[in-house]
Amino acid sequence: MHPTLFTTPGLARFAQELDAERGRQLAKFGDQRHPDGTQDDAYNRTMRDAARAICEQHANRETLTWAHVLDEEYREALAETDPAKLRAELIQIAAVCAAWVSDLDRRPAVVPEPDLPDLPDLPDERDYCQACNGTVHTCVCSDLVTPRPSDL
Length: 152
Known about the structure:
Helix content is 50%, strand content 3%. It is built from four helices and two strands, in the order H-H-H-H-E-E. It has a two-stranded antiparallel sheet. The longest helix is centred in the middle third of the chain and has 24 residues, at 83-106. The model has no long low-confidence stretch (mean pLDDT 84).
């Protein structure tokens, strides 16, 4: 393992997890080579500009989410065809993902509610006692079940 020189809090852990995931991808799919699939066309420019506007609107309203930020970066990448500029956009996407993961990691742990046993239903007039065959009003041994077989 190589020494890490990361100074940004949480980035070393993110890089280790990213490296592990990339290793799993290489093991599963091998070294892949695909065309970029990006286009500087009207559709991608429109989507990029819309994502920027949405991001800005939410930032101004203080309702900005990580999903907005990531969508904007993603849309910018899809509209870029120059390899050097596309690479820079992809690095920005990775940085947003790192920031989002860091934010998730710093949130307080959500404690799941304990599984509570189901409470028995309260007896009603149709319940009877198996031991004394009494009803909810006349039983003294508290062995009520519901309902009487003849009531089914």
